[in-house]
TrEMBL record:
GO CC annotation terms, alphabetical: mitochondrion
Gene3D superfamilies: 1.10.238.260
Pfam families, A to Z: HCS_D2
2-isopropylmalate synthase/homocitrate synthase post-catalytic domain: residues covered: 42-122
Single annotated GO MF: homocitrate synthase activity
The keyword NAD appears for this protein: no
Alphabetical keyword list: Transferase
Name assigned to this protein: Unnamed protein product
GO biological process terms on file: lysine biosynthetic process via aminoadipic acid
InterPro entries named among the record's database cross-references: 2-IPM_HCS-like (IPR050073), LeuA/HCS_post-cat (IPR054691)
Amino acid sequence: MARMVVATPEYVKSKYNLKKIRDLENLVADIVSVNIPFNNPITGFCAFTHKAGIHAKAILANPSTYEILNPEDFGLSRYIHFANRLTGWNAIKSRVEQLNLTLTDNQIKEITTKIKQIGDIRPLNIDDVDSIIKNFHATVNNLELPEPEITLEGEISRKRQRTD
């Protein structure tokens, strides 16, 4: 399918409903009781997931540098995985923008370093990263927001401010 889409994209798009491929794949997998591999071409989670620093930067600037297919043609989304030690500051900058926050490039580089340090110790999920970013944003902008306490066990709790 991928070869056909690359060779004659308009013909394939006019002949096939590409957005139904994942549904069809899931239907067949359910009927025959098999799991779909995460690294399956086109429809696997890894097909349009990117995480390395310079790689993620290139994807953000021009997705065709690393993707021969457009995930939207298949009803899928592109993911930039930024909660790991390979995270580059451009990926964090993209997430800051998605959260509608304003930080300078130097501030984003500083928070990226913190995320990488924690990512070296334990896995981070998107809520962890968002909490770190939001807390940093609140701190640099002198906003009243309880500081998240991120434990090595993977829990995030908010320190309560005492009101006497």
